[in-house]
Amino acid sequence: MIGREEIAQAQESLARLREALGRTIVGQERTIEITIWALLGRGHVLLEGVPGLGKTLLVRALSRALGLSFSRIQCTPDLMPADILGTYVFSEDGFRFLPGPVFANIVLADEINRATPKTQSALLEAMQERQVTVGNTTYPLPHPFMVLATQNPIEMEGTYPLPEAQVDRFLFKAEVGFPREEELVEIIRRNTEGEGIVLPEPVLTREEVLLCQEVVAEYPVHGELLSYAARLVLATHPGARNAPEAVKKYVLYGASPRAGLALILGAKARAFLSGRFHLEVEDVQAAFRPALIHRVILNFRAEAEGVSPWEVLQEVLRAVPPP
Amino acid sequence: MDLARAERILKRVGLFLRLRRFLLAAGFSSFLALLFLHGIRLLSLSVSPFLFGLFSLPPLFALLWPLDMEKKLFWCGRRLGMGGRLAGLSAALRRGNPAFLAALLNCKPRPSRLLFPEILSLAFPLILVPLFLLPAGPPMGVLELPAPSKETALALAGSASEGRSTPLGAPSIPKLPPEFAGSPAPSALSLLFGEGVSQEEAVQRLAQEEGLLRRLAELLAQASQAGSLAEVASEVGGILQELGRPDLRAALAEALAPGREELEKAQALVETALEGISSLQAELSASLQPSEGERPQEALGVEGARVSPGEGGRPGGEILMDTEAEPALRPELEGKGEGLGLGVGFEPGAPVQPGTPREWERPEEAVGTAVRAGEGPVRTGVALALPGEPPSESPAEGAPPTPQEVELLLKEASLPPALREVVRRYFELLGGGGP
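Above: the input entities. Below: the structure tokens describing the complete assembly.
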């Protein structure tokens, strides 16, 4: 059972992490916050944004600040599953398993939509089961384990859109926005003066990260809030009784049950980051977009009319009354 | 320790939630009860006090009905400015996590704030309650008919009292003979109806008053037999409103107030008043006896009474009488009164001081204009005027009104259907069209 001291220690650790990331990354507070939510919720993040917005830098800074092992996979069309998972090599002692880059605490799958579906699927088991099966042997992944994948929403040529099953495994999707003018000025200044970008020193230990995850998991959630999250998820389904008109009109498939988990985990992490010991309705609402935006599949009509998933989700948020 | 404290906090919140629900239900019930009370007052109904006990049931149910507090915790938190802390406390209590419980208990909720502003829901009924505790006025619940104009009422009464038609729209008050002014009767009339009322009008109002009182006596007898005023309450209320004497009206209203219904007292009052009117009418007749001895009807200003066979606008001078009112009016018409008596506020036989101010005197009081079926100015006017018709000076004045004129008159008077038919039939009789 978590005690008050552990909670206080976890909150202090997290404050240090935010401060370290803030020193390295200019702006992008929302992206950093969602990434930390995913870390605390033992989930993975899909970072979507045009090139040059600091996605890779964020992941590198995070891994450094956390003091965890980090590996990067640059996805290309010729990337094979064994390149990610590992392979058997013959040595003097016979065949020996050589772990791939997935065997790290923080894994960056850069431009994941450039890898073939076969290679993308190699990550499925790793992300969900936190283990890898090669041949007849299953190898556990290190703990904590977090995949941060990036993708470019504009460039479609030579890419393979992630299958729904894989997209669903990302706890949150962070849409990395373009920096504001003052942020851009600061980015230019930091990259052109002195030593350039300086990655943070480790401010947390592995144990502290695990403690933070444990504290967030212990957060008490009231039944009405769980019910609210469930109603929100159900309302994204066109056949649901409480689905708004926009959902019935534009949604092909609604969010999976994992969306409900993401809502609550995100709400818990947000409450923890805010220094609160209880969840508010606003926590769930704040986690609504990153938890559901990649889980709702719109139909052809929505594409034809230029309706975005967020427009539909906003209708859902309006239609479902909070507790 | 923390568990017990958390439970105590949540119990307190639950208690105040119940109180809040009770307040809302009590406010709503009180409002309904006042509406109900107002309704039964309007309809002059009497209901068992136990019926009002039903209005206490919703607040009791609200207080005792099981409360799903878990569903209300977020709402309570917002009302108390605690956000989701109460819900978090409940969740932590359920999971039994001491660290979170201790952190969440670091607050002082004030659940009494849940009662505001709901407590104001009782304010409106509480403001209204004193108004309902005031003593009741005369029984209401009468269907208020649109009052005809004074001219119309007088024209109706005048034409009826003369027993013949008068030009429509021309007010006609029976003319008293000059000898009337010298008799003691005018002083008594002025005492009754005030100084500002002309003697002719006072005589007419005296007759109206008598008609109303006789009808009231009938209704009270009917109510006395039935044991309740409920069936005739509305008509009684209407008559009370039309009575010209405020003191009598107030005394009757008090006797017949809902909850009291002292029928015997009311009957005695009406009886006394009728005796007083009879005495006054006898006095009027007697005062005119020396000059118009053999025709006391004329002393009452009923010119139609002088009609001899063959005279007037009616062939053969046929006398039309209201068969209902005629027996009651016969002694007065024949001058067989019982002496001066003025009813309430006066001792029978006691000398009346002319000009003595009375609390109910209203010098400028107008003729009652509310017209009701089977009573009121038309009926009493008919009773006094039927004996005959005066000789007309011109054929146009003596001629009965045409049916069109009658319909116009009825339309202007806004009479109820029953009375409308009576008046129509009366004019048919005058015009010779009836049986």
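Note for the figure: The two ends of chain B are 101 Å apart (CA to CA).
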